[in-house]
Task: structure prediction
Amino acid sequence: MKKKAIIFILILTVSLFTLMAREPQDEESLVLNNVHLIDGKTHKRLKNHCIVVKGDTITDIHPLGEKDITGAAFLLNLEGHYVIPGLIDAHVHISHMSAEELRMVLSWALKGGITAVRDMGGDVRKLATIRRNALLHEIESPYIYYSAIMGGPTFFTDFRVVGSTLGETPGKLPWARAITPTTDMRQVIAEAKGSGAAGIKIYANLPKEEIQRIAAEGHKQGLKIWSHATVFPARPIDAVLAGVDVVSHCGLLAWESAAELPQSYERRHEAQYDIALLKDKSYEKLFKEMVKRNTILEATVYIFLERIAKGDKKMEEFCIEVTKMAHQHGVKIAAGTDYIYKPGAPFPNVHYEMELLVDKCGLSPIQALQSATRINAEALGIEDRTGTIEKGKRADLVILSADPSADIRNVRKIRYVIKGGKLYVRQ
Result:
């Protein structure tokens, strides 16, 4: 009954909007005329610009009136509107959903401005099909990028990984691999890449030496390396020094100053969530190394405050303050949610993550926007294709009726979404 209720809520939410799609044509131009531009790259707001899209690509950006646009096949006059890059949720889990629920959630997410997501641990057999369908516009969906999980052998009894490997043996699959000192790293990374994964997620129960091996070989084969902030018994600084690209979960940073760490991820929430610990020099060292190595923090503040802390004020305060401290030191903050939607909520959770980054963690509205666009694209390794509004990049855009640089909540005021050059109208 609960799942049926969730699907009903999603259907009701979707039915409130009219979604019309226009297929991109290579020979045609779509012109966004007289729009204010927040490109995700700079902190400037460029007024009264034109953006030209052909097929799935941004082919020109120029000030209003600078060039003749009368020959455009499709002209959208947008006086008083603002365009931002398409939003990316850098941390979702979607493969456990039924086909009906998944179809509704992905369409709803697209209407909420999300043009790409990173799935951080699921059934790759299902994710590969979803990814293909999204690429071909056969379903209304953000672009899908996904990970292969690696961890210590003791992790692979976890019910979640068991669920994502049904019919097979957890720990012995390309997308769910148990790592030991005798593992042929070149082979298992190649198999993970062959599964279509964009990166490796280092989950739990591995020493720092194995993280180093995964990161070195993964990068050699062109994959991103994504890690929980604390892997157990490896602490955050170990993952950073090993060369991972992104560490996830602000709450797991609490283990950085611990005298000893558990061997198992099962005890992850037994840390001392005390902001006084942030005075420990280990945190300053950690954040300096992250800046030096360009390691991104995917904080997931929303999920900790909404679901994990469950009223634990010390945990909530720690998560906020450690994210704020990382930002103040210059660490790049990525916007991920761990849970793409909350039943009954009007917008995807990445909106609430951005709002928390502004309201609680010290980011400006434009910085929060960059977390959900440019920095997330960098985290996924797709910054050459999307994440900013630039000539030659994929046309993944959101058009708003109010200025998000004045109030981050204005990102909810969506009029149009463009994914890969395809225009959707939200009314």
About this structure: The CA atoms of residues 321 and 361 lie 7 Å apart. The chain has 13 helices and 19 strands. The chain has two domains: 2-83+392-425, 87-380.
